[in-house]
Amino acid sequence: QVQLVESGGGLVQPGGSLRLSCAASGTIFSINAMGWYRQAPGKQRELVGSITSGGTTTYADSVKGRFTISRDNAKNTVYLQMNSLKPEDTAVYYCNADMSSLSSRYLRPYWGQGTQVTVSS
Question: What's the average model confidence in pLDDT over 98-121?
Answer without folding.
Answer: 95
